[in-house]
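Researcher: Go.
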Amino acid sequence: MERQVDDGESGEERDPLIGIKAKTSWFQATRSWSGGRRRVLGSKGLVANYYHAMSRTCGGEVFFDEVEKEALRRVIWRVAEFCGVEVLTYCVMGNHFHVLVSVPHHGAYVERFAGPEGEKR
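Model: Structure:
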C-alpha cells in the first residue's frame, strides 16, 4: 500500500514515510523479573524458538500516528526478513509495540546460505 501525500507547496506528491524520525532513546530499565540474570528461552527439541519482543518510548510519550505505525510495520517486516525470523503476530500501539517471532535454530538458518550460490541469497 503506497500512499502519496501532496506537500502543499510544490504540488508534487511524496512518500509520507520519508523523513520520519523515531522519538526513542536508550532507557535505563528496572531490574528484570528474573533477578537481573539474562534469560535465554527455547528448547533444543523444537524446530524453532519463539520470542515475545516489545519496545516502548521513553517516559510513555505517545508518538505513533497512522503514518508512523505503517513505517514501523515496514521496518519490522524488513528486519525479520533480513534476520531470517518469522513474524507470527504484532501489535503497534500509541507508545509501544509487541512482536511475536519464530527464530529457527542455528542449523536451519545457516542452511539458507549453503551451496555455491549461498552468499547471493
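Model: Helices lie at 66-83, 106-111.
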